[in-house]
Amino acid sequence: MGDWERVEWMERTKEDETDPGGRHARPGGVANPTAAGRAPGNRAMGAFSAADEEKFRGVRRMKLTATGLLLAVAVVYVLATWAGNSGAGAWTGYVAAAAEAGMVGALADWFAVTALFRRPLGLPIPHTAIIPTKKDQLGVSLGEFVGENFLSGAVVRQRLRSVGIGSRLGAWLARPEHADRVTAELATALRGALAVLRDSDVQAVVGEAINRRADAQEIAPGIGKMLERVVADGGHRRVVDLVCVRAHDWLVLHNDQVMDAVQGGAPGWTPRFVDKRVGERVYKELLRFVTEMRDMPGHPARGALDRFLTDFASDLQSDTDTRARVENLKREVLGRGEVQDLIASAWSSVRQMIVAAAEDELSELRLRVRASLLSLGARTATDPKLQAKIDGWVEGAAVYVVTTYRDEITSLITDTVAGWDAEHTSRKIEAHIGRDLQFIRINGTVVGSLAGLAIHTVSRALGG
Q1: Containing domain of residue 305, as a range?
Q2: Alpha-carbon distance 368 to 377, whole Å?
Q3: Cβ(340)–Cβ(203) under 8 Å?
Q4: In 3D, which of 348, 363, 345 has the Cα closest to residue 187?
Q5: Does 226 share its domain with 308?
Q6: pLDDT of 272-325, one tens digit each?
Q7: pTM higher than the cut 0.70
Q8: How far lies 26's CA from each of 70, 276, 420, in Å?
Q9: Residues 6 or more apart in contact with residue 169 via CB below 8 angstroms
Q10: Are 400 and 281 in the same domain?
Q11: Could you give the number of structural domains in the chain?
Q12: Which residues contact 360 (CB under 8 A, 6 or more apart)?
């Protein structure tokens, strides 16, 4: 396609965009094929941008240069042939041979370069217009090439191993400004995640997890073993001591209430002085009993309490009825609305605390995260074993991704290329690499001329 055809195509494209399917529609009801290729639903490459137009202007300049060089050697050939026929000397044969070979080289390379993007002179020559006609095959070949040479497990593993991600990551994290940046990004991500979560959803998930875990595991044997260890170690005695001290102090401070309670429970037919004497006697006996339990570690009541707790711990582990009662009590407690409300309120408090800590740069949470990142970076930068472990994790993850999803990745290439409009794709590619391809024409002209000169010289030297 010449420059005038390029200009005509660009003008048709603009007209079709302003008057789609109208007066510029072609016979058969199909407008400009390039515009049709960019219709909605067809994944064509983007329209020519200002940068593409600038590149294509460079292509046109190089085309003019290459064509001008072809015309120059053609003129030289004509002049040299005329001069030789006029008897100017043997030198004209050398010049004519060089110019003739330069024309042949220029025309051959023009044909090769043009055949990539369109049919030369519009002739249906086989194996021309390679990019428009073989676009889909090129996309498949490109996808297979990328899959075999870039997305293989061995290539990915070797490349990542040569990079040394572990040591680089350690050195990067060991710098305070980088640790601050990672900490800030983690805090932002944490706030975003907590903002997305709804309290009702978290409450439902936590409640379900607690109920599922509680149903899956019986708690009575565990409580029994813990109680057994507590009694064996004497840990319950501190609780008994505390209860005795508090009971003694309460009786001393509330003696009147105790006697009134005893007197109020006496029959109505008993004399008042008898009720009073009985109340005083009961109060004194209670006070004496509590005082003895407080002051006597070997008090019989303490021993009876130890035996009770020991027997109860054994029943929790082995008695079927006791374990069943504990399980029923567990289900009743977990099923109460107060427990679910407690879970909801606990989550709300925890979330507010975490969000506040994430927003405060001087919070203990962010300071600890920053310190951990710095420590991790310093260790990773100097510990070969840790570096090897990180490299192994990264390599394993990358190899898994490329081997598992290689077909999906390569199909992205093939499907994308298959969805491009053939003619527009060819022009887009020509705009990007056409300038360099024109140097082939120039080189063909120069090399052809030199080869023709060399061949003619050898022929003359051999007496041709």
Answers
A1: 208-335
A2: 14
A3: yes
A4: 363
A5: yes
A6: 666 677 777 777 888 888 888 888 888 888 888 888 888 888 888 888 888 888
A7: no
A8: 37, 122, 22
A9: 377, 380, 390
A10: no
A11: 4
A12: 366
Residue 435 tokens, joined = 């300038």
The CA-atom distances, in angstroms, between 172 and each of 178, 184, 370, 380 are 7, 16, 13, 10
HSE at residue 248, side-chain half, CA atoms within 13 A, is: 14
Residue 45: pLDDT band (50, 70, 90) is low
* Torsion angle (degrees, nearest 10) of CA 46, 50, 53, 55: -100
Pick the closest to residue 105 from 442, 452, 448 (CA basis): 448
Residues 256 and 219 in one domain: yes
Do 322 and 391 lie in one domain? The reply is no
> Residue 339 is encoded by which pair of tokens?
């427990």
Q: In the predicted model, is pLDDT for residue 12 greater than 70?
A: no
Joined tokens for residue 377: 């970076």
